[in-house]
Amino acid sequence: MLSSALEILHKYYGYSDFRKDQGKVIESILKGKDTLAVMPTGGGKSICYQIPAVLFKGVTVVISPLISLMKDQVDNIKDLGIGAAYINSSISHQDILHICESLIAGNIKMLYVAPERLESSEFCQIIKSIEVSQIAVDEAHCVSQWGHDFRTSYTYIWKFIESFSKRPVVTAFTATATKEVREDIVNQIKLNKPEVFISGFDRENLKIGCLKIGNRLGYMLKYIKTNEEQSGIVYAATRKEVDSIYERLKENNIAVARYHAGLSDKERKNNQEDFVYDRVNVIVATNAFGMGIDKSNVRYVIHYNMPKNIESYYQEIGRAGRDGEKSDCILMFAPQDVITQKYLIETSIQSPERRLNEYKKLQQMIDFVHYNGCLRKYILNYFGEQVDYEECGNCSNCVSEGEYVDKTIDCQKVLSCIYRMKREFGVNMIVDVLRGSSQRKVIQYGFDKLSTHGIMKNYSKEELSNFINTLIAHGYISLKEGEYPTVILNPRSIKVLKGEEKVTLKEIVKAKKITLNNDLFEILRVLRREIAGEESIPPYLIFPDTTLKELSSRCPINFEQMMDVSGVGQLKLKKYGERFLEAIKNYMDESKIKPQWIFKNELKNDKNVKEGKNLKLKTHEITAEMIKEHKDLEQIAKDRQITVSTVLSHITKYAEEKGVLDLNINFGGIFTDEEENQILKVTKKIGISKLKPIKEKLSEDISYDKIKAVILKDYILLDKNA
Ligand code: ADP
Ligand code: MG
Ligand code: ZN
User: Fold this and answer.
1) CATH code for 403-507?
2) Residue 670 Cα to ligand 1 middle (Å)
3) Long-range pairs for 632-640 at CB < 8 Å and ≥24 separation?
4) 659 falls in which pLDDT band (50, 70, 90)?
5) Is CATH 1.10.3720.10 the classification given to domain 2-198?
6) Would the pTM count as exceeding 0.90?
7) Domain 516-595 architecture
């Protein structure tokens, strides 16, 4: 049964394997069992009901909450070569009749409808005259009051299902993991003895980061500028904040759109489209944005404010990296966020019971921000998933980027100033006193006579206010709520003042570029946008970023090879193959790259690859491929935007995996003969197992890179080739 499903996956979608749990879910549905699948955003839920839809005899009705998205979803399916249609309020009566004819003629495998449609008797009449094999409820958490997107019309779905004389298979999909929501789905939709699949919630490709810095805007601007060519979402807590960030980004010449409930429907729709169609790369939004955004190439999600709870946070960052490529999630915390979120709870939730529930969830979010362990583990545990590691290696607590610096003395200066000022003031006033301002208010209170007046002149106004805010974010000073928040000392401040606790802060890491694209990737991306424009569909629907990446690293030269690339199905090959192949060929000619193709089937028989399971080229394999193209080490480092040291590690890894090597590496420019001899002298004595002792025995100017390179050349490669 599953083999026919795999065939569809390959032929239409162009993917070679199911992701985790997809196979099991599909198998259950194909057996005719009601099925509930809980998978993270980007986990690949659509394929779970779409493949059965193709294999089943009749039509699958897909209930999906967002009218605005239906067109994209249906375009996507049609673009794969599968018959699909949608009916919603934007479709004319004439067109509905037309769709009905196609339904009856059996040309449509999937019909997307909004839940409201099920209440129309006319619609129900039509549906009953055709064979319906599956009813798939997407975003099924909308049925639950506990979910975040409750929709009344979802609670009528069961009536619709019961009205069939022959009950279709009913399937439901959601990314919301809590037990309450899950139980609500089963009960409200009245699933019949359902098979329930709960996938692991980890999204390995998302780098989870939490920043507590005073200067959020500055950091964000730099980050966005550095990653200007990438798509990203910035979430802020309020409309006002969205508007102001939007203006600031525009002032900085960033192509940006905004989204919040204060805009007209039309504006919202246009702005969302601009983002989905890659006409702007950044969208600033409140949490109203994103439900069902299927755009797969969102490379970063920035939370300018702390969100209200872990569920929302995880759902929002889940919109990054649906294509499986690595993506950044940056949460920027400031204590004012807590005040904002409390205010929002107070003003928007009536029921005391639910309010209490929201406060509890908010507290867990705050705990997350201040958590010192692995952030990924915290989230997964929150969703009830046990993890067997202590460190994920891909969150800001596990990867210590940036150096810790001792800021105890500066912190003490701030604290003692607050202490001496006796009354409560806001950050600005403290900044003024510490910088020695002789403003009227400062004089009036006699602060110019304090010993702390002017002791931090070496900071600019902005720097100092950022520093104080950073201290607040780390809990060295407290913020007191009120119309104008004031700062106050807390038990921790006292400890620091007494010298019992040190203040070490991480230097803020420079904003980094996300993906390591090569030139060809850029060329293909431009081509993709061109074609998308001609067809009026979003670029990511032509090919996802992963496919472009694989095309640009493997360089297929004919249809057969191109079909071997993940994400290239039959119809897409026919429609777009020629143009992509031409672009690739031109690039190969210009850069004198010789064609070299290994089919995945051949690779599959390769023991190493089999064990690694992954058929995509891994990052170190791409480096090795470039070596085979005779690029030199420094060029590769430059092209891939990695350090020479990383290039060396990649090759070492590759050599270790593959055993033998046909790599002809040009070490010219990395070390001189003289340096090589010096290094060899040491390594012959003390071995190569540890780099540090080797380095210590050599002169200062011989870097780790040089040592690594010599070891690679004279030990590893020699060994492996022997
Ligand atoms: P969600 O679970 O959030 O609804 P989607 O169904 O939108 O996720 O899928 C997210 C992305 O993953 C899509 O771009 C889809 O094409 C891709 N995808 C799904 N299944 C696979 C697979 N087996 N191999 C590769 N990519 C896949
Ligand atoms: Mg989905
Ligand atoms: Zn971690």
Assistant:
1) 1.10.10.10
2) 42
3) 632/666, 632/668, 632/669, 633/665, 633/666, 633/667, 633/669, 633/670, 633/709, 634/669, 634/670, 639/518, 639/519, 640/516, 640/518
4) low
5) no
6) no
7) Orthogonal Bundle (1.10)
Q: Which pairing describes strands 110-113 and 59-63: parallel, antiparallel, or unpaired?
A: parallel
Please compute the mean of the pLDDT values over residues 62-80 and round it to a whole number: 88
Identify residues whose C-beta is under 5 A from ligand 3, the ion: 374, 376, 392, 395, 398
Expressed in angstroms and rounded, the spacing between residue 477 Cα and the centre of ligand 1 is 45
Nearest CA to ligand 1 atom 20: 44
pLDDT greater than 70 at residue 609: no
Mean pLDDT, residues 219-245 taken together: 95
According to the model, what pLDDT value does residue 604 have? 63
Among all bound ligands, the one having the nearest atom to the CA of 50 is 1
3-state secondary structure 372-427: CCCHHHHHHHHCCCCCCCCCCCCECCCCCCCCEEECHHHHHHHHHHHHHHCCCECH
Query: Which pLDDT does position 670 carry in this prediction?
Result: 86
Distance from C-alpha of 235 to C-alpha of 221, rounded to nearest angstrom: 14
Distances (CA, A) of 483 to 68, 304, 339, 341, 426: 39, 21, 10, 15, 11
Q: Given ligand 1 and candidates 13, 171, 550, which is best to mutate, with the most ligand atoms within 8 Å of its CB?
A: 13
Q: Kindly identify the ligand whose nearest atom is closest to the C-alpha of 294.
A: 1
pLDDT at 613 over 50: no
What is the CB < 6 Å shell around ligand 1?
A: 15, 18-19, 22, 39, 41-47, 294, 296, 322-323, 544
**Looking at the CA of 49, which ligand is closest?**
1
CA of 205 to the centre of ligand 1 (A): 14
CATH number assigned to the domain covering 206-352+373-385: 3.40.50.300
Note the pLDDT tens digit of each residue in 300-323: 999 999 999 998 999 899 999 998
Q: Is the pLDDT of residue 16 over 50?
A: yes
